[in-house]
Design brief:
Elements lengths: L1 H4 L7 H15 L1 H28 L2 E3 L9 H12 L13 H13 L10 H8 L6 E3 L24 H13 L12 H14 L9 H13 L54 E6 L5 H8 L4 E5 L2 E9 L2 H13 L5 E4 L1
Parallel strand pairs: 1-2
Antiparallel strand pairs: 3-5, 3-6, 4-5
Helix pairs in contact: 7-9
Length: about 350
């Protein structure tokens, strides 16, 4: 039987085959070298790819906009591409395609479609599937935070936290808001106006993000006037106690009016300076369009025609901010000095 396998009578077939295979392998060293090189190339590519993805998944989401470059832009582009928002090439450059995709994503997420990756947009991107973004670590920047920065205040709430919020809103420029300590409808509308200016979701509720933005602005632009406190009656009379005995007061002397001070003439307390945001009324639907951005907008009329009054501000920066928001919606908003 050994003769059929080519082995001598003193060798079994298995020993003969192993010896013959070894001699063949020794005669073909180039073949084994090529097989080994191909194996190293395949496994080397896998080993290089795994840590690269782990690094990309740890990119912190910070504010970026058109024209910016860097790792955050690349992570934003990759996250958008992973979820069906085309950005072209993931090159770390915030260009036209990236801005268009961000606006589309913001509209789908009920965010302000300004094309800027701010804090609200970052939070929404982080929650997407296969997101390559994580929250940026918070660091101390010297800004002053309010005592209620971790609590959401909404209509119906009351107390010191609401008083602090109303004072902060007045310091921000919303001087038409009364400080009552009660989160009423006027406070809700004022919070909405602030959220429009800051590019936040317009909910009317003072959530932690809204309060933080308000505090950061006041830290950079401290108010020049002291804050107000809710008005309360001074020295209220005790319950079930008779009033103290007092001597009758003498009748007041008659008031003599002079030509310099005519009788029944009201004094004017309206500030002399300020800025109004108006939109000329060119069609009947204009008021409804403006109220989408500013719920408290109302109609006005002058000798030159009708207009929609969108808001009054004590500084031009806030007025221009609201005007730009309205212009972004295709409205002919203007800032006029009061």
């Amino acid at each position: 039987m050994n003769q059929y396998f080519g082995a001598t009578p003193t060798q079994n077939p298995l020993q003969f085959w192993l010896k013959r295979s070894g001699s063949v392998g020794q005669c073909r060293p180039k073949l084994w070298g090529r097989l080994l090189g191909a194996s190293l190339f395949v496994f080397g590519a896998i080993a290089i790819e795994i840590p690269g993805s782990a690094v990309l998944a740890q990119t912190a989401c910070t504010t970026v906009k058109r024209g910016d470059r860097g790792a955050t832009v690349s992570a934003v582009q990759q996250t958008l591409a992973n979820n069906g928002y085309p950005v072209g090439t993931v090159d770390g450059v915030f260009g036209d395609m990236t801005e268009i995709s961000i606006i589309s994503f913001q509209r789908a997420s009920n965010l302000d479609p300004d094309g800027v990756v701010g804090s609200a947009t970052c939070d929404a991107l982080i929650k997407l599937n296969n997101s390559t973004l994580v929250k940026a670590p918070t660091t101390s920047t010297g800004t002053v935070a309010t005592a209620t920065s971790t609590t959401t205040l909404k209509q119906g709430d009351s107390g010191p936290a609401v008083t602090t919020l109303q004072n902060s809103l007045r310091s921000r420029g919303f001087s038409d808001l009364a400080v009552t300590g009660v989160f009423d409808e006027n406070t809700t509308n004022t919070v909405k106006r602030l959220q429009v200016i800051e590019g936040l979701p317009v909910t009317g509720e003072a959530d932690p993000t809204t309060q933080t933005r308000l505090s950061q602005h006041l830290a950079k632009n401290p108010p020049a006037t002291p804050v107000s406190t809710p008005t309360t009656p001074a020295n209220p009379a005790p319950i079930n106690q008779p009033p103290p005995l007092t001597t009758p007061a003498a009748p007041p002397a008659p008031t003599v009016f002079t030509p310099a001070q005519p009788a029944n003439t009201p004094t004017t307390t309206e500030p002399e300076d300020g800025y109004n945001v108006i939109v000329p009324a060119r069609n009947n639907d204009l008021l409804a369009q403006v109220r989408i951005i500013v719920p408290g907008a109302n109609l006005g009329r002058t000798r030159l025609g009708s207009y929609v009054h969108a808001g009054t501000y004590s500084n031009r920066y806030d007025a221009e901010s609201l005007s730009n928001k309205l212009k972004a919606r295709g409205l002919d908003a203007r800032v006029v000095k009061r």
